[in-house]
Amino acid sequence: MADRKLATGLGDEGGFAPEINCPEDVLALLTQAIADAGYTSGRDGIAIALDPAASEFHRDGRYQLCGESLTSDELIDRYRGIVEAFPVWSIEDGMGEHDTAGWQKLTEVLGERVQLVGDDNFVTNPDLIASGVRNGIGNAALIKLNQIGTVSETLEALSVCRAAGYGAMISHRSGETHDSFIADLAVGCGCGQIKSGAPARGRESPNTIASSKSLLLRQI
């Protein structure tokens, strides 16, 4: 980003937030950064997980992206092109939370190739996850303990995922503390995935650092 004279300011969760309009440009930068760091990109190296948060740019039945107004099918074609061109392994909230037909089509088109994670449409709710399973929506769920509110309901949501063969990704939320419990939850449940933000802000990213330390200590 420095070579391209892009802003290196940080977003809400510690990640870089440069002024780049098109997702393909961001993915090209990420892929180049992986290579420049001496790593291999892809499933056997470093893969990329996206959170488009499509509900945020879904208006009146269309998706407003890069100055274009896309139908659900057109956005799905965009995702297909991205998956073919870049080492993308997971897409979270790829369609708007109320775009059920779009979610079903996305799952039909890409469900065998990448992880499709529901967050805004599932909200860690066991009943909503079960409904998504019945309706062929996604193949994984984001799990946020303080979204559903209790450990028992969180475990129930994980149980629904496991019974359906869905993946599960344990996640933090904005305003977390130094507590590293979500790292313990991810390991204890054996889901193999955790989303805790970037550690760039130190004191402003306490949960990220605490969770990372907890996971690293388990490797010693």
TrEMBL record:
This protein's pathway reads:
Carbohydrate degradation; glycolysis; pyruvate from D-glyceraldehyde 3-phosphate: step 4/5
Listed under GO cellular component are: phosphopyruvate hydratase complex
Name of the protein: Enolase
Q: What Enzyme Commission number(s) does the record list for this chain?
A: 4.2.1.11
Origin, by domain of life? Bacteria
Molecular functions (GO terms): magnesium ion binding; phosphopyruvate hydratase activity
Q: Which residues cross the membrane?
A: none
One short Pfam family name for this protein?
Answer: Enolase_C
User: What family name appears in the similarity comment?
Assistant: Belongs to the enolase family.
This protein's species is Mycobacterium xenopi 4042
Q: Which GO terms describe its biological process?
A: glycolytic process
Keyword annotations for this protein, in alphabetical order, are: Glycolysis, Lyase, Secreted
Q: Which InterPro entries match?
A: Enolase, Enolase-like_C_sf, Enolase_C
* Domain Enolase C-terminal TIM barrel residues, every copy: 1-220
